[in-house]
Automatic annotation (TrEMBL):
The lineage of its organism: Bacteria, Bacillati, Actinomycetota, Actinomycetes, Mycobacteriales. This is CoA-transferase. The keyword Transferase applies. GO terms for molecular function: CoA-transferase activity. The keyword Transferase applies. InterPro entries: CoA-transferase_III_domain, CoA-Trfase_fam_III, CoA-Trfase_III_dom3_sf, CoA-Trfase_III_dom_1_sf. It comes from the Bacteria. It holds the Pfam family CoA_transf_3. Keywords: Transferase. SUPFAM superfamilies: CoA-transferase family III (CaiB/BaiF). Signal peptide: none annotated. PANTHER family: SUCCINATE--HYDROXYMETHYLGLUTARATE COA-TRANSFERASE. It comes from Mycolicibacterium fallax (Mycobacterium fallax).
């Protein structure tokens, strides 16, 4: 387990100052990644604090460790004055609010450039900075962009992933855009919407429809459209994810499972049902855990379906300590650098600094 004992060298974003006016998840997750990489992130909060403080202390810590906290009432002259001071000494501002609030509080490049011509302003919204104020929570955007309709078994209801895929994906995209504009050395306004990010992530599905008129179809057990077998399989105990793409994987799998035929990808796709029946029968003879051991030893992509606690227990190097909390650490690992995982800030902890 990694512990917060300082860092042998400064993070790659040391010296970069970012202001966050965000709440709950998408915006705070974007700046969490930046803070883990060494940026100084100042979180502007209303007097009541980010609403995520009301969820639980560990929830707040999981996306706000290592930041500073300043309480500002942005609808007051004093709050706007302090905002201008922070902007003058910062490289970027990232905000996730309704577009009307972003404009009302003057959190755009046009409004803030008088304080700092090089400030990078990132607006993270549901449907765009000029796309209106329709509420845009993660589940809403999954429904609105086709993600929910594509997920689940045929004949069943649309299904939502078990985690906030839209918020996290949009946060990462916003962080990338922010850094790109800083590297360019110029200020400006960036507009990153949850809708656009999710449509972008449906890349090849969207291309198939736009160019060939192919509508996405749900397949049983999360099966892949182009590869066979590539899905979940029931075993003697537990489910196994198997993902066979090229023919070498199939030859190795067939040898281990005692199967023959279907030597090429084209054959397997053309005979999907027969292939899946043969694979299902073979996998039913052993447990998911044993199949994972047997198949990975041959270099075949396979994994038993685990719960989150089981996954965390198997990957202790992904768990860090920040103050009193054990959390999942930064996924970007850099030779010679260990992030300084500091606790999440108390509300207004950096008010005078």
């Amino acid at each position: 387990m990694a512990v917060t004992n300082g860092s042998p060298q400064a993070g790659p974003l040391a010296g970069i100052k970012v202001i966050e006016v965000g709440s709950v998840l998408a915006g705070p997750y974007a700046t969490l990644m930046l803070a883990d990489l060494g940026a100084e992130v100042t979180k502007i909060e209303p007097p009541a604090g980010d609403i995520s403080r009301q969820v639980s202390d560990s929830y707040f810590a999981s996306i706000n460790r290592g930041k500073r906290s300043v309480v500002l009432e942005l609808d007051t002259a004093a709050g706007q004055r302090r905002l201008g001071e922070l902007v003058a000494e910062s490289d970027a501002l990232l905000v996730n609010m309704k577009p009307s609030a972003i404009h009302r509080f003057g959190l755009t490049y046009q409004a803030l450039r008088r304080h700092n011509e090089k400030i990078v302003c990132v607006a993270l919204t549901g449907f765009g900075l000029h796309g209106g104020d329709h509420p845009a929570f993660d589940h809403i955007v999954q429904a609105a962009t086709g993600v929910a309709a594509m997920t689940g078994d045929p004949g069943g209801p649309p299904t939502l992933p078990g985690y906030t895929s839209v918020d996290n994906s949009t946060g990462l995209t916003a962080a990338l855009g922010l850094l790109a504009q800083i590297i360019a050395g110029r200020g400006g306004q960036l507009d990153v919407s949850m809708r656009d990010v999710m449509l972008s992530q449906l890349n090849y599905h969207a291309a198939a429809y736009l160019n060939d008129g192919v509508h996405p179809q749900r397949l049983p057990n999360g099966a892949h459209k182009f590869y066979v077998p590539a899905q979940l399989f029931d075993t003697a105990a537990g489910y196994l994810a198997l993902f066979i793409t090229y023919d070498g994987f199939w030859r190795a799998f067939a040898a281990e499972a005692g199967l023959s035929g279907f030597a090429t990808m084209a054959e397997r796709v053309a005979n999907r049902e027969a292939v899946l029946a043969a694979v299902s029968a073979a996998l039913a003879t052993d447990t998911a855990s044993n199949w994972e051991t047997r198949l990975t030893a041959r270099g075949i992509p396979a994994a038993a379906v685990r719960t989150l606690p089981e996954a965390l227990d198997r990957n202790p190097d992904s768990v860090i300590t920040a103050g009193p909390y054990r959390l999942v650490g930064c996924p970007i690992r850099i030779d010679g650098h260990t992030p300084d995982y500091r606790p999440a800030p108390a509300l207004g902890a950096n008010q005078q600094s």
